[in-house]
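job 3f2a | input accepted
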Amino acid sequence: MRRRHFLQVVAAGSAAMLVPSPVWAEILTNGREVAFQCLGDKPGLRWLDGRTASATVGLVDRVRIKTYSGTKWRIYNNHDGTVGVQCRGVVDGPRWLDGRTANGTVGLAPNRNPPFSGTRWQVVEFDGDVVALKCLGSIEGNRWLDGRTVTGSVGLAPNTDPPFTGAKWRVSSYPVCIDQSCD
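job 3f2a | predicted structure (183 res):
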């Protein structure tokens, strides 16, 4: 019986290595620092930026390590397969990406405890490193993180279909000063 169990475990482990994991699953690992680029079809601002001083979120023109420190986000994997997304900006203030489904807005919450149920996000893969983030807040309403590139604002959309093209995001590892200038 022990030998049979051993062979089943080895076979299952070998099969798991043959099934590729999605690119985003490798990038959105616990503790990883990432940047989110909005893929909206209109020209404008693209990079998700947490503004910890005002507990708001918006879009900026590019990742700037010093100027826009709120473009750095840390991923926290929850036990239920969802994620928490924490802004790593250098200014003190609320840090948790918070979808407010009651009114369709997005901001930063001081923690992930009630009443901040909008700090739990489901990652939905579209293609490789392109994802959508679905807010799992407890109040009904719009749920999809949506960048509005023309205005530089961020809110929640009812779905990821046009005209809500800003609800798709490219996720990448956050750059370090060696990769780009530290402006």
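job 3f2a | The chain has one domain: 28-173.
job 3f2a | closed
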